[in-house]
Amino acid sequence: MLSFRNWGAGGDRGGAWFLAVLAVVAVAVPVFNQAVTQSSPFHLSAFGITLIGKYLCYGMLALSVDLIWGYCGILSLGHAAFFSLGGYAMGMYLMRQIGARGVYGDPILPDFMVFLNWKALPWFWYGFNHFPFALVMMALAPASLALVFGWFAFRSRVTGVYFSIITQALTYALMLAFFRNDMGFGGNNGFTDFKEILGFDLHSDRVRVVLLVVSTAALAASYTACRAIVQSRAGRVIRAIRDAESRTRFLGYPVESFKLWLFVFSAVIAGVGGALYVPQVGIINPGEFAPINSIEAVIWVAVGGRGTLYGAIAGAVLVNYAKTYLTGAFPEVWLYVLGALFVLVTLFLPRGIVGLASGRGDEKR
């Protein structure tokens, strides 16, 4: 059993500090938004809440990538697909809260289907007017894709750069599929113009604060679960697979099974992050599947510190904050900055910001 005290005394003070920062965010954001008047310079606007919430969701995506890349050596360039599937599951629920209501008060057709002259609701939309069903699908959809894809890939012993290439091909194929209007997912426009969630106005500050607090709790829970995994006996086997896969297999460990369940678990984390991302930013479209998004997630992990978990989350926050600033101040140079950042980190900071801050050799993993 892991505890906050054990983390602080056992060498993972960074993780303890990270959870403390999340607790401060969960308390401070409601205070600065609800208790501080709008005329005060300390008031946190709705835009600020949305920005912080988005960074937290990106942190979950970075965490999922670091779990499999930093600890198991699986470099996935397709985790944006799992993030997007979770987002689409949430978007389908939110879209079903819009439009004309049937006899029993249930929504009939989402707005975009009315606009495209659809006559009936597709079968795969059934159930999404109920939040518990949608909640299950937010995790089940990415988990199912990861299970099927991972089973074939790991069973065939696809590793290294070949695995990276096929995961990138996977997310690109999904992007092209979701761009089609006849798929029933809104085509290139995706889902937007959401109105309410669980009967509450999605645009009110109180709901935005609640979503941010839920995102904070989800990130903390995901981090705690990942930390428990990597510090367990299974975690030692996972690191052995990263460092010497063939030797681990020869010792009798089911390498493919370890890879598969870890890959599926990371997909669930990414999917939950995507589901929380959508109601806060107010849109989900096929552009979220773009391979560049998966590549950016890898850069976040590399910048923060691969194989540290909290470092990956810190990298996601720092890089996206820089992106927010630079895309506004110098939009034409942002991509060059991102590429240069990855090259410089690879050459001069192989352990990322966390490794630089610790001033030590390899972090204890």
Task: Give a description of the structure.
The protein is mainly alpha-helical and 365 residues long. The chain has a single domain (4-358), classed as ABC transporter involved in vitamin B12 uptake, BtuC, CATH 1.10.3470. 68% of the residues lie in helices and 2% in strands. It is built from 15 helices and 4 strands. The strands form 2 sheets. It has a two-stranded antiparallel sheet. Strands 2-3 form a two-stranded antiparallel ribbon. A hairpin with a 2-residue loop joins strand 2 and strand 3 (200-201). Helix 3 runs parallel beside helix 8 (205-230), helix 6 runs antiparallel to helix 11 (255-281) and helix 12 runs parallel beside helix 15. The radius of gyration is 21 Å and the shape is globular. Residues 1-11 and 360-365 have low confidence and may be disordered.
